[in-house]
Design goal:
alpha/beta; four-stranded antiparallel sheet; 10 helices; 14 strands; about 35% helix
Length: about 350
Amino acid sequence: MIESVSLTKFYPPPIKSLLDLKSLKDFIKTPREEIPALIDLNFKVKEGEVFGLLGPNGAGKTTFCKIANALVIPTRGNLYINGYDSIKEHNKIKGRIFTIFGGERDLFGLFQWRVSVEKNLKFIAELWGIPKAEAEKRINYALELLNLKDKKNEWYQKLSAGMRQKVYLALPLILQPEVLILDEPTVYLDVFTRREVWNTILDLSKEFGTTIILTTHNLNEAEALCDRVLIFNKKKIAEGKPKELIEKFQALKMERKLLVKLRGKVETSNFNGIAEKIKVYSQNGFTYLEIYTKQDRLKDILAILTNYEVVDLQNETITLEDVFAHMCSLDIYVNSKVGEKVKKGVANI
């Protein structure tokens, strides 16, 4: 289990150059505003769950991943992994947790460039204390699952960025950690490889019971893979199952969009006072309508459409991306308004 308790991280402001300052004494005395990366972040992840961390650029996703690996120390709060503090007791979890950072970034320097893929994987398995026979079995399984058998004798250096990322993604299948943190694991990957990785993530969760934290900008990926998601921008905005968040957003959404295909001409004046906006165009003998209406006028729109020969009618589909975009944009708007008030001395935070 993973638990984040009031997790907060502030970074010191960047220093352009000490030459821009009058003196080092002035620099030390001048108060500088710290940069927030995480603010009182609270959530729990159940054992064996695939949990998504979703946020815009700069939300604090990578900072969270680094705290989990004791690469960054939080300003306050704690992150517990299987009951152990990720910073103070990291030596008790370092063999149980594995992290993959986005792209081909080998942040921990595990791979040797002028060594074959297979030899690299065998060496890393040996570092983890996996018996030789078992390691070979797991490596063959991982290479087969990720379609990397034909690359096993190639130098890591000669692989493309996408292939290096696939090789790195073989490690969780070989090491089988209790907790796996994936920081944008499918960036740079084509659509076919991405789906292979999706299957690998689901395989790890179902077959090995691995607890997985996934950060991604691909909302379709989060919707397909995650049992629950946390939408945040430095601090928590919303949390829940993707389907439940979508249903709640759909129930609250005041305006609906209908896509209608019908035969013959249409009198748009019939929709006056009912539709908020209507777009009409004709193609191949059919008339197409985009109707925007309030939720409570939907029945009236449908009643008018019974007077026409409707061929197809589609209600707007709400996705996790719609929920994410709405909540994050609202959060940014609210925070900017509070910020304006603070600057004017109207509010204090």
